[in-house]
Specification:
Elements: E1 6-8, E2 14-16, E3 23-28, H1 34-41, E4 52-54, E5 60-62, E6 68-70, H2 84-87, E7 88-93, H3 97-100, H4 107-124, E8 131-133, H5 134-137, H6 151-156, H7 175-185, H8 192-203, H9 214-224
Parallel strand pairs: 1-5, 3-7, 3-8, 4-7
Antiparallel strand pairs: 2-6, 4-5
Helix pairs in contact: 7-9
């Protein structure tokens, strides 16, 4: 790690990787407060963990060594990989989430998260398309880090894919064609509406209705082009 201040709070919940690290998964903790979340991630009975936790006041807590397989992704899929825990580093971002009073992510928190993401992605050469949210890899089960997460802030620093905004064109795919394109992009489409909602939550968060419309089709088409053009 570079000169990021790290608090060590080891979790026993890890095992050995079976894949190289190619992904970074961002989560929110979805618990009432930071202490509850950290204690749960460190509790052997929980069977969950993450490599890092970032608190709202900007503290970075390391709970599992990056070389080990933390248990943060659960049943998930992205771009042909099902054992995402083996292929990823997981960061839990303290936020009560949709169940406990979802709120914007403070600047202090983002001020620590961004250099941590940069450091991890640089060292492991993780591409922007593999910097994802929990809802991207588990659309039928999860909605974190949610529609308030500032993906655009990361995208402008080339730490996430940008939302395409320029020269958008509706390809007029059928709904089935859209789903095939969404699967090609990386999503698990076993539950189609859940996959559409996850896509909207990430790339069109102002309207999350599960409806495939011209704007969704145009955004997805642009993302599938070699160089997505967005708000960078």
């Amino acid at each position: 790690m570079t000169e990021l201040p790290i608090i060590e709070t080891p979790s026993p919940n890890y095992d050995e990787r079976s894949l190289p690290i190619t992904m970074l998964v961002l989560h929110y903790t979805g618990m009432p407060d930071a202490a509850s979340a950290i204690n749960w991630l460190a509790n052997p009975e929980s069977k969950v963990s993450a490599h890092y936790v970032v608190t709202e006041d900007g503290q970075i807590i390391r709970m599992v060594d990056e070389a080990k397989r933390a248990w943060h992704a659960g049943r998930s899929h992205w771009r042909g990989i099902d054992d995402i825990n083996s292929a990823s580093i997981g960061i839990e971002i303290i936020n009560p989430g949709h169940e406990w009073g979802y709120r914007p992510f403070p600047e202090t928190q983002m001020g620590s998260l961004i250099p941590l993401v940069h450091d991890i992605t640089q060292r492991h050469r993780i591409t922007r398309g593999n910097i994802v949210g929990h809802s991207d890899i588990a659309p039928a089960r999860k909605q974190d880090p949610g529609e308030l997460f500032p993906w655009g802030q990361l995208a402008r620093l080339r730490l996430a894919l940008p939302r395409p905004t320029k020269n958008l064109m509706d390809p007029h795919w059928t709904d089935g064609g859209f789903m095939l394109a969404l699967e090609r992009f990386g999503y698990d489409i076993a539950e189609p509406q859940a996959a559409v909602i996850a896509f909207q939550r990430r790339f069109r968060p102002e309207r999350i209705d599960g409806v495939i419309d011209g704007e969704c089709r145009a955004i997805l088409l642009a993302l599938l082009l070699p160089k997505p053009r967005g708000d960078e």
